[in-house]
Specification:
Length: 635
C-alpha cells in the first residue's frame, strides 16, 4: 500500500487514522518519498495556534520548480506538461512539453534577474490565461521571488491597492486579453494603476492581442526580445521550507483585501498530494481545471499540484459561452479530457442552455468531475452527474479556501461514495470540527455549526502579508486553538459534511469571494449617496447575487434612478471590477440599525430573499419603522 495514492475506502480510513494519530510520522513519509529535497528537515512540525505560528519541515531546503519541472525531464521530458487551448477555437492548441516548459521557465527566470529581481522581492502578475502566466509563476519560484497574481478582471484601483500592499517591484502583464469576442486593454489598466504605485520599477509586457499600447521608456519592456537573448539555464535558488512562495489576495468581510502568504514546502506537499487523490490522476491522463490562475484554485490545481505530479494540465484562455455554450464540451472531446474541474456557477449557466448542444459531443473520456467555489445545489449536481458524467463519473465536491491552500473536505473518487450537495469527508490529515454559538465543540453526528479545523495541515496560510495581528483575529480568535473557516456546515448521520455557506459578511458571487465593505465604500464615493448596505440573495446562475440598499442625499425624481443605478455600478466596476456589480439597487430612506449603529444585514438579507415572514424580532432596532418601508419598496 502506498499512502500517497489511496484506492479503497478501507485504505482511506486507515491512512486517515494514521494522519491524525501520528501526523508528523505520516507527513514525513509523504514528503520523503515523493519529493526532491536539497536538505531534509530538522523537525516535521512546530505549531502554536495561539500565536498563531505554524512551521512544516523546518530546516529543509528545496526549490518547488525542481519538483515541478527538472525532476520530470529524464522520465517524461517529451510529455505535455501544459496544454494550452486558446480563446479562438480556430487557433491551434499548443502543447508544451516538460522540456519546453523547462526552457521557457529558465529563460523567463533569467529575464527577471536581469531586471534586478532577487530572492524575496515581490512580483505582481496581471495576465490573461496564456502559457506565460504559468511560466511567470514558475520563473518567480525558481529564483525565490514571491509572486502575487492579481486576477485580470480586477480594475486599476483594485490592482493598485494590491501592488502597494505588498510593495511589488515589478509587474508582468500583456498588451491585452482576449475574452470571448471582446478584447480587454490590460496594459491600459496597468498604466492607470501605476500612476498610484511608486514601488514598481519595471513592467514586462507579453504580446498577445497585437494592440497599440503606450510603452513608458525605461520602465516598460516587451518580454519577447528579452527572452530571446536569455540563457535557457538558470540555477535554482535554494529555498527554506518556510520561505514564502506566493501572496494571494482574498476579500475579507471588512477593510483591505488580505494578502494570504503561502510557504514553499508545506504548500508543495499538500497541493501535490491532494491533486493526486482528489482527481485520481494516473499516467497519460489529461486533466482540466477551468478556473483562472488569478484564484487559488488555479495556483494549486492548474499549476503546482498537477506539475508536481508530472501531469498534463490543460489551460483554457477563453470563456464557456464563446463561440457558443458548447465550448467546454468541444474541448473535452478534442483533448479527451479525463478529469474536469469547474464551479457550480458555470454548471448552472450551461445547464440553462439545455442538453441539445452537450449531447452532440463525445464526453466518454471523462472519469472524474470536480466542483469548487461555492455550495453546489442539488439540481446542478444532478444535471452535472446525468448529462456530463452520464452517471459514470463521480463528482468530487471539493471544499476549501484561499487560506487553506489545498482541498480540505472532498470525496475521493471511486473511493468515497458521493452524496449530492455533500463535500463528504475530511481529506487525509484534516481534523475538521463543528462549533456551536457558545464555543463548544459539537460532538456526534446530525449536528450543524461553524466549521473549524483543530490541527495544522501543511498548506495552511502562514500569515496575512504585513498584518499578522489581523491573521490572528480573523482566523484564530473566534474559537480558542482552532482555525475558524467563516463557513457554516452540517454533519449527517454518517459523518459527511455539507457546507451551508458563509456566516460572515463575505458573499460568494459566481464562485468569487466578495466582501461587502469594499463594495459599500465604492458606492459611498458617489456624490449622490449617503450610505449603503449590500447583501446577497439567491440567484439561479450565480448562486448569490448582490442586492444594494442605497440612501440618497436627495430622493429626487424617480426617473433619474435608472441613471444612478448605472453610475453606481460604474463606480463599483472602477473600484473593484465588473464581478462586484449589483443585480438590484433599491433606493431607501433608511437602513435598519441596532442601537449601537450597526446595520442589521440579517433583516436586509431576508427582505432581498423575499422571506419577509421570518424577519424575526425588530423591536430592538433603533428605527424599526424603516423595515416596513423597505419591504413596501422591495424590487
Ligand atoms: C469560500 C472560499 C477554494 C477555491 C475557490 C474559493 C466557499 C469553496 C466550496 C464547496 C461550498 C465552498 C466557502 C469558502 N466554498 N468551495 N465545495 N462547497 N462552499 O476560494 O475565494 O477563498 O472562497 O468558498 O464559503 O469559505 P475562496
Amino acid at each position: 500500500m502506498s499512502n500517497y495514492h489511496i484506492k479503497h475506502l478501507e485504505e482511506y480510513f486507515q491512512v486517515y487514522r494514521k494522519s491524525v494519530n501520528q501526523p508528523e510520522a505520516f507527513w514525513e513519509e509523504i514528503a520523503e518519498e515523493n519529493f526532491m529535497w536539497r536538505k531534509k528537515w530538522n523537525a516535521v512540525l512546530d505549531w502554536d495556534f495561539s500565536k498563531p505560528s505554524v512551521q512544516w519541515f523546518r530546516g529543509a531546503k528545496l526549490n518547488i520548480t525542481e519538483n515541478c519541472i527538472d525532476r520530470h525531464l529524464l522520465t517524461r521530458g517529451d510529455q505535455t506538461a501544459i496544454l494550452f487551448e486558446p480563446n479562438n477555437p480556430n487557433e491551434p492548441a499548443e502543447p508544451i512539453s516538460y522540456k519546453q516548459l523547462s526552457v521557457r521557465v529558465n529563460k523567463f527566470a533569467n529575464v527577471l534577474k536581469s531586471k534586478g529581481i532577487q530572492k524575496g522581492d515581490r512580483v505582481c502578475i496581471y495576465l490573461p490565461m496564456i502559457p506565460e502566466l504559468s511560466v511567470a509563476l514558475l520563473a518567480c519560484a525558481r529564483i525565490g521571488a514571491i509572486h502575487s497574481v492579481v486576477f485580470a478582471g480586477f480594475s486599476a484601483t483594485a490592482l493598485a491597492t494590491r501592488i502597494n500592499d505588498s510593495d511589488c517591484k515589478m509587474i508582468i502583464t500583456s498588451d491585452g486579453a482576449f475574452r470571448g469576442n471582446k478584447t480587454i486593454d490590460l496594459k491600459g489598466i496597468v498604466d492607470e494603476a501605476l500612476d498610484r504605485c511608486t514601488c514598481v520599477e519595471s513592467v514586462l509586457v507579453v504580446k498577445r492581442i497585437e494592440s497599440e499600447i503606450q510603452m513608458k521608456s525605461g520602465r516598460d519592456f516587451w518580454i519577447a526580445p528579452l527572452l530571446e537573448k536569455a540563457s535557457d539555464t538558470c540555477q535554482i535558488e535554494i529555498m527554506d521550507a518556510e520561505d514564502p512562495l506566493f501572496i494571494l489576495y482574498t476579500s475579507g468581510s471588512t477593510g483591505m483585501p488580505k494578502g494570504m502568504v503561502h510557504s514553499t514546502a508545506g504548500y508543495m506537499v499538500y497541493s501535490a498530494y491532494t491533486f493526486k487523490n482528489t482527481f485520481q490522476y494516473t499516467e497519460n491522463d489529461v486533466y482540466w481545471c477551468t478556473a483562472d490562475i488569478g484564484w487559488i484554485t488555479g495556483h494549486s490545481y492548474i499549476v503546482y499540484g498537477p506539475l508536481a505530479n508530472g501531469a498534463t494540465t490543460l489551460m483554457f484562455e477563453g470563456v464557456p459561452s464563446y463561440p457558443d455554450f458548447g465550448r467546454f464540451w468541444e474541448i473535452v472531446q478534442k483533448h479527451k479530457v479525463n478529469q474536469f474541474y469547474t464551479a457550480p456557477t458555470a454548471i448552472r449557466a450551461l445547464a440553462k442552455h439545455g442538453t441539445e448542444l452537450v449531447n452532440t459531443y463525445d464526453l466518454s473520456s471523462l472519469k472524474v468531475l470536480g466542483s469548487v467555489g461555492e455550495p453546489i445545489n442539488e439540481e446542478a449536481w444532478h444535471w452535472y452527474n446525468d448529462n456530463i458524467g452520464k452517471r459514470n463519473s463521480p463528482i468530487v465536491d471539493t471544499w476549501w479556501q484561499t487560506e487553506t491552500g489545498g482541498i480540505m473536505i472532498t470525496p475521493i473518487p471511486y473511493v468515497t461514495p458521493t452524496k449530492p450537495t455533500y463535500a463528504t469527508l475530511p481529506f487525509i490529515g484534516i481534523q475538521a470540527c463543528l462549533m456551536d454559538e457558545n464555543g463548544q465543540e459539537l460532538k456526534g453526528n446530525q449536528v450543524e455549526g461553524r466549521l473549524c479545523i483543530k490541527f495544522p495541515w501543511p498548506s495552511i496560510a502562514r500569515t496575512i502579508w504585513g498584518n499578522h495581528q489581523r491573521y490572528k483575529e480573523t482566523y484564530f480568535s473566534a474559537y480558542e486553538h482552532k482555525y475558524f473557516t467563516g463557513d457554516g456546515a452540517l454533519r449527517d448521520e454518517v459523518g459527511y459534511y455539507r457546507i451551508t455557506g458563509r456566516v460572515d459578511d463575505v458573499i460568494i458571487v459566481s464562485g468569487h469571494n466578495l466582501g461587502t465593505a469594499p463594495i459599500e465604500d465604492a458606492i459611498n464615493e458617489h456624490p449622490a449617496v449617503v450610505e449603503s448596505a449590500i447583501v446577497g440573495f439567491p440567484h439561479y446562475v450565480k448562486g448569490s447575487a448582490l442586492y444594494g440598499y442605497v440612501i440618497l442625499k436627495d430622493t429626487g425624481e424617480s426617473r433619474k434612478h435608472d441613471n444612478l443605478r448605472k453610475e453606481i455600478n460604474q463606480i463599483i466596476t472602477e473600484h473593484i471590477g465588473p464581478i462586484a456589480k449589483l443585480d438590484k439597487i433599491q433606493f431607501t430612506d433608511g437602513l435598519p440599525k441596532t442601537r449601537s449603529g450597526k446595520i442589521m444585514r440579517r433583516i436586509l438579507r431576508k427582505i432581498a430573499a423575499n422571506e419577509m415572514e421570518n424577519i424575526g424580532d425588530i423591536s430592538t432596532l433603533l428605527n424599526p419603522e424603516v423595515v416596513q418601508s423597505i419591504i413596501d419598496n422591495k424590487l
